[in-house]
Design goal:
single chain, about 80 residues, alpha+beta, 3 strands, elongated, binds zinc ion
Amino acid sequence: MVYGILSNENKRLILQRLIVCQILITLRSEEMKHVCDPCGYVYDPAEGDSASGVKPGTAFADLPASWVCPLCGVGKDQFYDVK
Ligand SMILES: [Zn+2]
């Protein structure tokens, strides 16, 4: 652990960055997720759907119309939004 040999100024900067990261993570986690009504599969835009070739960061609205739930195969219209 190199933390101990850092100057107080560096420690302060690192703490600031940690706080910024925490805020960003919090904001991300508040992004809308989409839950499959029949099976409960959760589509998280931050993760995408690698099994279907959907890249991380793909918004639910940007999924192709042909995209279906990877677990039960229903279409996008069967999903509901959650925070
Ligand atoms: Zn499903």
